[in-house]
Write a structure and sequence with these properties.
The protein has 182 residues and is of the alpha+beta class. Helices cover 29% and strands 40% of the residues. It folds into two domains: 6-99, ACT domain (Alpha-Beta Plaits), CATH 3.30.70.260; 103-175, ACT-like. Chain A, domain 2 (Alpha-Beta Plaits), CATH 3.30.70. The chain has five helices and eleven strands, in the order βββαββαβαβαββαββ. The strands form three sheets. Strands 7, 8, 9, 10 and 11 form a five-stranded antiparallel sheet that branches. Strands 4-5-3-6 form a four-stranded antiparallel sheet. Strands 1-2 form a two-stranded antiparallel sheet. The two termini are 25 Å apart.
């Protein structure tokens, strides 16, 4: 977490609150245009989305879950949550960061090209990170890795000097702990 003072979302104010990263779980109707309305709320107010995943979660009820990671001061995060709650197709907005230590995972596909010692080192690191080789030739690998955001970031950083070619990421999927539905 960044603890330095931040510029407020509103340019005329300076806020002495720190910038925080929050994971929001938003249950919405699964219908055309809902995602565009949620994204429009963010873009129209100058908020940024660091990660975004969307999938139908309850087929019979026609509900989808939007999981997003965004950053801002506590005041900005509260504004985002309240504005999301006012959208008509939104049923619930849960700040998983506030609810407490959510289970968060991401999947990444990472293509690395290399020969010789770099190739051996890439395979050794992949094993240490429990990444799976899902495609290979004599000149490249494609690794599949799942885990927390920091694990994925660290693996990508280590692959850069070994011949990183391309990265595709799913975005964060998250769920609250405990037996209750969120």
């Amino acid at each position: 977490m960044n603890t330095s003072p931040a510029q407020s979302h509103y340019q005329s104010q300076t806020v002495s609150e720190s910038i925080e990263s929050h994971t929001l779980s938003v249950l919405v109707d699964n219908e055309p245009g809902v995602l565009a309305r949620v994204i429009g709320l963010f873009s129209g107010r100058g908020y940024n989305i660091d990660s975004l995943t969307v999938s139908e979660t309850e087929h019979e009820a026609h509900l989808s879950r939007i999981t997003m990671v965004t950053r801002g001061t506590p005041m900005v995060i509260e504004q985002i949550k309240h504005q999301l709650e006012r959208l008509v197709p939104v049923h619930t907005v849960i700040d998983l960061t506030v609810v407490g230590n959510p289970m968060e995972r991401e999947l990444a596909l990472i293509k690395v090209a290399g020969k010789g010692e770099a190739r051996v080192e890439a395979l050794r690191l992949a094993e240490a990170f429990r990444a799976q080789v899902i495609d290979a030739s004599t000149e490249h690998f494609v690794f599949e890795i799942t885990g927390r955001l920091n694990k994925i970031e660290q693996f990508i950083m280590l692959m850069q000097p070994l011949g990183l070619v391309e990265v595709a990421r799913t975005g964060v999927a998250a769920i609250g702990r405990g037996k209750e539905a969120m």
